[in-house]
Structures are given as structure tokens and as C-alpha cells.
Write a structure and sequence with these properties.
This is Spen paralogue and orthologue SPOC C-terminal domain-containing protein. The protein is 32% helix and 10% strand. The relative contact order is 0.29. The protein is of the alpha+beta class and 110 residues long. It is globular.
Length: 110
């Protein structure tokens, strides 16, 4: 959705493993520090389930994080992507302030 996808196409696995959960405030404090440093890039990716089985897992994961007011932490070892957080946003939720304005070429299908 935002940012350069060049590393994502080679770094993102077929399936994301959730290694834990984290408080939203911890994520936003970290994102603000990254933005202030000016040396790191932040990418925003929208995941969409493909199969019916994916849809069920996606919905359960969304409900889990939403009900606990937590974000997910991806556990996959990636070469270029240092940290990945799974942020549950409902269809009518606004994009969190630290992520806007969006920057980059726009929508990509990976």
C-alpha cells in the first residue's frame, strides 16, 4: 500500500508466522523513532486472504488481536525486513496516524 516493495517480493514468505503480540503504544513509539531517524523505510502492506481456509484463519487472527487490543509480531527470519507487525484494522477503521501520509508508488500485488 505504501513504500517500496522491492525487498518485499524476495523477503516475504508464503505464510507469516506470528511469534507474539505487542502493545500498540510500543509499536507507535518505535515507528516514530524510525521516522525521526530518516534512515529506515517503513512499508505498509495489506494482506488479503485467498482461499476459504485463509479467510477463516484471517478472521480468527483479526478477532484475537482486536479483542486483546494487541498487534502481532511476525517471527519469520527475513533478510531485508527487520521488523514486521500485524495491525488489525477493520473495514471502517482509520489508518493509524504514525503511518500517514502514505508514501511511495502505491498499490502492489505481491
Amino acid at each position: 500500500v505504501s513504500g517500496s516493495p522491492e525487498y518485499l517480493t524476495e523477503d516475504l514468505p508464503d505464510s507469516i508466522q506470528v511469534g507474539g503480540r505487542i502493545s500498540p503504544q510500543t509499536v507507535w513509539d518505535y515507528v516514530e523513532k524510525l521516522k525521526a531517524s530518516g534512515t529506515k523505510e517503513i512499508c505498509v502492506v495489506r494482506f488479503t486472504p485467498v482461499t476459504e481456509e485463509d479467510q477463516i484463519s484471517y478472521t480468527l487472527l483479526f478477532a484475537y488481536f482486536s479483542s486483546r487490543k494487541r498487534y502481532g509480531v511476525a517471527a519469520n527470519n527475513m533478510k531485508q525486513v527487520k521488523d514486521m507487525y500485524l495491525i488489525p484494522l477493520g473495514a471502517s477503521d482509520k489508518i493509524p496516524h504514525p503511518l500517514v501520509p502514505f508514501d511511495g508508488p502505491g498499490t502492489y500485488k505481491l
